[in-house]
Amino acid sequence: MRRFLTRFGGLAAAAMLTVGLAHPSQAADPAYFEFTDAGRQTAVVRIDNPDAIAHARQLLSGETTERPHLYGRIVKRPASYNPKWNFHYNPETVSFFDYAIEVCDATLPYVEDHLDEAGGAFLPGLHWCPWTSRLTREVPAP
Predict the structure, then answer these.
(1) Cβ count within 10 A of residue 44
(2) pTM above 0.85, yes or no
């Protein structure tokens, strides 16, 4: 019986792998958006998630006003599409929110000025949710 289950498990795994390969993922091209905050500074965010990209476009078109603020984890180094700042959102973590806890709120210049502290008591886990963030426009891919 053990041998049968082992063979069956192997066949099932092979079948699942084949089915997985027959249907490639539906990953969308990344999209880039300019955003601002209370400090009136701007930055660019790259978004990889197709649902988040669609939501961003709905915000810009006025189709929705729900979840207008950016949320995600930051990476402490510049990105080619966002050279003004020494940090950027990890594109795979970007989402949107209506309300968030205060511990992840900060303006662009404040994050820049305190980047060495980010990940500790300031922006724990590198989670950043600027309460006043708003998309301003979609920008071309670099």
Answers:
(1) 19
(2) no
Domain chopping of the chain, boundaries: 31-139
Q: What CA–CA distances, in Å, run from 64 to 59, 71, 77?
A: 5, 17, 32
Angle at 47 between CA 137 and CA 113, to 5 degrees: 80
Q: Rounded to whole angstroms, how far apart are CA atoms 109 and 132? A: 13
How far apart, in Å, are the Cα atoms of 73 and each of 6, 59, 65, 104?
42, 21, 23, 10
The pair of structure tokens assigned to 130 is 């600027």
How many angstroms separate the Cα of 5 from the Cα of each of 8, 12, 13, 15, 126?
5, 10, 12, 15, 45
Q: What is the mean pLDDT of the chain?
A: 84
| Token output for 43 | 């930055």
Round to the nearest angstrom and report the end-to-end CA distance of the chain: 58
> Which pLDDT tens digit goes with each residue over 85-138?
999 999 999 999 998 888 899 999 999 999 999 999 999 999 999 999 999 999
Separation of alpha carbons 23 and 60, rounded Å? 32
pLDDT at residue 55 above 60? yes
